[in-house]
Amino acid sequence: MTTKLLPQIKLIEAREKMGLTQEGLGKKTSISRSLIANIERGYAKPSLEKANRIAVALNSSVNEIFIFFENNVQKTNVS
User: Fold this and answer.
1) Distance between CA atoms of residues 51 and 63, nearest Å
2) Cβ contacts of residue 78 below 8 Å, gap of 6+?
3) Neighbours of 62 (CB within 10 A)
4) Euclidean distance between CA atoms 39 and 9, whole angstroms
5) Best exposed site among 20, 42, 51, 76 by fewest CB in 10 Å?
6) What pLDDT is recorded for position 69?
7) What confidence tens digit (pLDDT) does each residue in 18-71 have?
8) What's the pTM?
9) What angle do CA 45, 49, 54 make, to 5 degrees?
């Protein structure tokens, strides 16, 4: 069984925790509000450079916001 923490949910939570609107985050990062909205909806994936700008603006790291975390992944031995 695989459990994934969706990056768009983490982005919304981090943005709201900072008291920012999509437009406010866009202004802090020089990324359009529409791209921020599309990332939050899961319709777009930011480039590494844009993901880093977003993370810095949210006092976070790229890993904390954008990486899928997997738990309970069955490991197989490769020989």
Assistant:
1) 10
2) none
3) 16
4) 10
5) 76
6) 47
7) 999 999 999 999 999 999 999 998 888 899 999 999 999 999 999 888 875 444
8) 0.76
9) 75
